Amino acid sequence: MHSHSWLNLIMFATAVVLAAFLYIKPSLQEEAAYKISSLSAESVQHIRIDRQDTSIELSRSNNRWYMKKPVQGKVNEVNVEPILEILSATSQHLLPLENLDRYGLASPVIRLQVDQESFDFGNFAPITNEQYMATRQQVFLVSPRYAATLSALPTDLLSSNDQTVFVE
Questions:
Q1: 82 CB burial (10 A radius; 0-12, 13-18, 19+)
Q2: Are 76 and 160 in contact (CB under 8 A)?
Q3: Three-state SS at 99
Q4: Could you say which DSSP state residue 10 is in?
Q5: Which CA distances in Å does 7 have to 14, 16, 18, 108?
């Protein structure tokens, strides 16, 4: 073999080893996933969403969701499912519940109360573009889609074929 053939063979072997290493390495390092909640969506009976300008209360009765505040009426079940997805969420980041101003959690943008468990949504992390969320005496970084589902207007949650009663 010529010296060029040996050089090509060594470069090819190096490329194969490097490719194999890059392929195998990510599967060796599993990232920790922290569960946000211990509640199950099926067991939830009460939901409260507090924002700066409004408060929404939902209750489950006979396997149907009803809005109690600010209007009364049947809720479209499809609109409740994305809200309850927070219960099955996980986070790659777990932080101590301190320096709440830093996370925007001293006065949360949105507070979600699911039965007895509270979820406070704060600022966005500048690097990951995830949102700080406090629950169970810990701070997690979660996708901003969870807070976005809580931004719906009360009337958007109601079933379209139901008469609503406005409560003052």
A1: middle
A2: yes
A3: coil
A4: H
A5: 11, 14, 16, 62
Q: Which amino acid is at 114?
A: V
Measure CA of the first residue to CA of the last residue in the chain; give whole Å.
91
The pLDDT tens digits of the residues spanning 107-130 come to 998 999 999 999 999 999 988 889
Phi, psi angle pair for 88, to nearest 5°:
-100, 5
Between CA 155 and CA 42 the distance in angstroms is 23
Nearest-angstrom CA–CA distance, 101 and 104: 5
What does pTM read for this prediction?
Answer: 0.75
Q: What is the 3-state secondary structure (H, E, C) of 81-113?
A: HHHHHHHHCEECCEEECCCHHHHCCCCCCEEEE
Contact between 92 and 141 (Cβ < 8 Å): yes
Q: Where are the alpha helices (DSSP H) in the chain?
A: 3-28, 77-84, 100-103, 145-149, 154-157
Q: Which two tokens stand for residue 99?
A: 């320096």
